[in-house]
Amino acid sequence: MQIGSLVRRAALHYKDAACLAEGERVVSYREFDGLTDRLGNALLASGLVPGDRVGVLVPNGIDCLVAYYALAKAGLVRVSLNTRETEDDHRYKLADSGSRAVIHAGGFGALGVEVTIDPSELQALIRSASTQACAIDRALDAPLRLGYTGGTTGRPKAVTLTTRGELAELSAFLTDLIPDIHGGDTFLHAAPIAHASGAFFLPALVRGARSLVMRGSTPRASLNWPNASRRG
Fold first, then answer.
1. Closest CA to 198 of 206, 207, 189
2. pLDDT digits (tens, 9 = 90+) for 145-159
3. Which pairing describes strands 77-80 and 25-28: parallel, antiparallel, or unpaired?
4. Distance between CA atoms of 89 and 78, rounded to whole angstroms?
5. pTM to 2 decimals?
6. Where are the beta strands (DSSP E) in the chain?
7. Mean pLDDT throughout 35-54?
């Protein structure tokens, strides 16, 4: 099973239920499936090919998760970058991973890749892209994404995560860590999606829960977030 097929399955099951919320913006399961199809198709049409590495340098938000799962559908390998790190860190990881492109939130200097996609270009790509299903199948043990270590013993090192590993993690979350999450629940993503919080999005998606995404967090803001449960 491919990760993109889980997004499509969720759209078929949960349709117009809220999948993601960020401030006043709400995206349904059906809309999330369509947005990730469009962006995945646009990235492939731009000349990227399955297996290419693509950095994602976008803060917590709906667009970050659209980028993550568009890459999965297109067979492109995600390189998650934390916006709280320095530009030197970003350039190092993009070069070390051999990334051909980066989707970024703006405000950065030259990042040393062939293709850079800023926020306005990202929206333009999505609007103009094919609406056909984007579904590139890759081997389950081929790289799905690269996660970098913290670099406490030198420069950060890339850890390769595969589709098989992602599916195993999903199973572990749903059977042990958050087995009772279900439709109607709300999962609050207050920590960085590029780090630990992102691991909880796929379990929430496959169970039909709504993910609330915060760009920044304080204890008071988290407790007062509208309609947030104590999950997350």
1. 189
2. 999 988 778 889 999
3. unpaired
4. 16
5. 0.91
6. 18-22, 25-28, 53-57, 77-80, 101-104, 115-117, 143-148, 158-162, 186-189, 210-213
7. 97
